[in-house]
Design brief:
Low-confidence stretches: 1-26
Mean pLDDT: 75
Radius of gyration: 28 Å
Strand content: 35-45%
Number of helices: 4
Shape: elongated
Strand order of the largest sheet: 1-2-3-4-5-6-7
Structural class: alpha+beta
Distance between the termini: 92 Å
């Protein structure tokens, strides 16, 4: 049997024999209603910035729709891996970001942080800081308190898209009594010490 005739027989069987072309029914309810709801495929690239101006980095992120609702000042070294979503480049929620940030001194919302370090993670519109650690230099009233800044270690999570909750967990040490008293009048009963 010539090859052309063999191909014609195969095509005829596929088109006219019901069992040959039967396929399981497609359950449309099981598919995501929106293409953006599916996990996008991402192209990953890594970037490193040494001693970068943080307000300019914040402006660069805003170009991609990632707006942090905080004022940041200072300089830092940043290593990040960015996952660019194929087919969803204009959807900020579809991006992925992982990395690290280190800064000898930075300011967030007028609060000065020293020796700031954290692991960054952004996925599905949620930005998180893991292994977060920093010191806060505060006013000390007793001479023995002058040498130790308050130390904070913990995690933070901020829902950016859509805008939602900010949550944080922290362990705080070396906090002077004056710093506690500044937090609330109810803590005025603490007279002195470092906690």
């Amino acid at each position: 049997m010539p090859i052309v005739r063999q191909i014609a027989v195969v095509v005829a069987v596929l088109l006219f024999v019901p069992t040959a072309r039967a396929q399981p029914p497609v359950d449309r309810r099981a598919e995501p209603a929106d293409r953006a709801a599916r996990e996008p495929k991402r192209f990953h690239t890594s970037l490193s910035f040494r001693d970068i101006d943080l307000p300019s980095l914040q402006q660069r992120l805003e170009r991609f729709g990632l707006r942090l609702p905080l004022t940041i000042a200072g300089r830092a070294s940043v290593r990040i891996t960015i996952g660019f979503p194929w087919g969803a480049l204009f959807h900020a929620k579809a991006y992925e970001l992982r990395g690290e940030i280190q800064s000898p001194r930075l300011t967030i919302e007028s609060i000065e942080f020293e020796r700031f370090a954290a692991r960054l993670h952004y996925l599905d519109g949620v930005f998180s800081l893991e292994e977060l650690a920093f010191d806060i230099a505060g006013e000390r009233t007793a001479p023995q308190e002058a040498a130790l800044p308050a130390h904070v270690a913990g995690t933070a999570r901020m829902e950016l898209i859509p805008r939602g909750a900010l949550t944080a967990r922290a362990n705080i040490s070396n906090v002077a009594a004056a710093q506690f008293q500044a937090l609330s009048p109810a803590l005025a009963m603490i007279e002195s010490g470092v906690f």
